[in-house]
Amino acid sequence: MTAPFIRRRTLIAGGAGLALAGCDRVIRQPAVREIVFRGEDMHRGLQRALSNRDALAPEFRPDQMSPRFRTNGTRDPGTADYAALRAGRFADWRLTVDGLVARPLSLSLADIGAFPQRAQITRHDCVEGWSAIGKWQGPQLGAVLRAAGLRDGARYIVFRCADLYGGAPYYESIDLIDAFHPQTILAWAMNDRFLDVGHGAPLRLRVERQLGYKHAKYLMRVTATASLDGIGKGHGGYWEDNVDYDWWAGI
Amino acid sequence: MAATVIRRHRLVTRIWHAVNAVCIIVLIGSGLGISNAHPRLYWGAYGANFDHAWAQLPRFPAWLTIPANYNLAISRRWHLFMALIFAFSLLAYMIVSLVNRHIQRDLRIRRAELSRAHLAADVRAHLALRFHDPEAPGAYNILQKLSYVAVIFILLPLVIATGLALSPGMNAIWPWLLDVLGGRQSARSLHFIAMAAIAGFLVVHLVLVILAGVGNELRSIVTGRWRVPE
């Protein structure tokens, strides 16, 4: 009596095991990969259809902040160039704003501070699953882009960073909907202090409706482009290029 | 005497069951892969390494995760793609099952069925491996109804709602969802708990299919035809 029982159980367990192993095999097929990776576009389309494009990420009260906000990714770019900027307390640091803009800019920290400022207490969600709540302050990216004057044809904003990943500067990119979102800011202050090195000094992106890896740290250059082709491997960011992370990280 | 064969499951029910079975297996496998990226669970809005975790999860082994090797990006791709199929097929199944009266006819729990005597009788019947009322062999017994209703109307919607609440984009669109669930890290914990309950149902469901007769039960969920046990 037990023999068929065990055989059946093995059959069902084996079936589930095959399904799991099957997923690994089929995702290597370009056609399957293409379909599964399309999920990102479907989620973005659905979310944008459901929402006001300027819908705000939740903001919090000071007493709701994380007692300790962990660092992640690069903790210190460690390059000679960055060390020199850091030694000079970023007095010689400039943010280049270029690409498809009418007036390319070179902004010092004082210039960044002269823009109207936005402060926000928001939650930072890492792709790995953890969350931390902190306070960020800086000009809206939209205000900086308006000062530079986007030219026709600009569709993406690309962020180049001082830290190297695989020998090349870390980079990220967002579209204009997120670039002009009211909570998308270039933060130079965190929790009412100058940004520290672990969190991206002297300037980082906050793009509050997306996951942490989009929030580029150690910003050096902001470029308006018509396309992501020809930048890195063309997928719009270091992680997107190298480990298949979603370019639109709203989910 | 020829065995009596009845048509037990409608086509829509069978199609949804098949789609859902694939979705659940891939979602659990890929979800366990995602869990391995940060195997700690918290209550509240925030939660990271320096914060108190109410649960420290084990590292799920390769034979349980999709993909088998640790790859957060591919786990997420599977998870988020299948989540769409899973959620919209559940929605479609619920609507069709209201219209074709599957819910009202087969899943509705009647007061008399909840009496202590009836429940106790059904537990005894299960322990004796008698799963079908000879008077109405095609009908679900009360334990079956309770578990199906709990899964379809509580656990599956809960796992979808808590999953949506993990999306920073959705948090901007439906901030009330976070308020209801108690913050993103609470939603993440509830998402895991709902998954564990669904996995528990899955195991019991499969064991009962085996006990009730794999061939007959499998045929009925694939072709709809079910032989009434003598």
Automatic annotation (TrEMBL), chain A:
Entry's SUPFAM superfamilies?
Oxidoreductase molybdopterin-binding domain
Q: Which PANTHER family match?
A: BLL0505 PROTEIN, PROTEIN-METHIONINE-SULFOXIDE REDUCTASE
Q: Which PROSITE patterns match?
A: PROKAR_LIPOPROTEIN
What's the name of the protein? Answer: Molybdopterin-binding protein
Domain Oxidoreductase molybdopterin-binding positions? 91-226
Taken from the record, one Pfam family name reads Oxidored_molyb
Mind giving the lineage of the organism this protein is from? Bacteria, Pseudomonadati, Pseudomonadota, Alphaproteobacteria, Sphingomonadales
Q: Which superkingdom, per the lineage?
A: Bacteria
Automatic annotation (TrEMBL), chain B:
List each copy of the Cytochrome b561 bacterial/Ni-hydrogenase domain by range. Answer: 8-224
Concerning Pfam families, the annotation shows: Ni_hydr_CYTB (PF01292)
Q: Where in the cell is it found?
A: Cell membrane
Keyword Plastid among record annotations: no
Q: Which domain of life is it from?
A: Bacteria
- Quick check: keyword Hydrolase in the entry? no
Annotated InterPro entries: Cyt_b561_bac/Ni-Hgenase (IPR011577), Di-haem_cyt_TM (IPR016174), Hydrogenase_cytochrome (IPR051542)
- Residue stretches spanning the membrane: 15-34, 78-100, 148-170, 190-215
Question: How is this protein positioned relative to the membrane?
Answer: Multi-pass membrane protein
The UniProt entry's GO CC annotations, sorted and at most eight, read: plasma membrane
One GO BP annotation of this record: respiratory electron transport chain
Any one Gene Ontology MF annotation carried by this entry is: heme binding
Question: Which keywords appear in this protein's UniProt record, sorted alphabetically?
Answer: Cell membrane, Membrane, Transmembrane, Transmembrane helix
How is this protein named in the record?
Cytochrome b561 bacterial/Ni-hydrogenase domain-containing protein
Protein source organism: Sphingomonas ginsenosidimutans
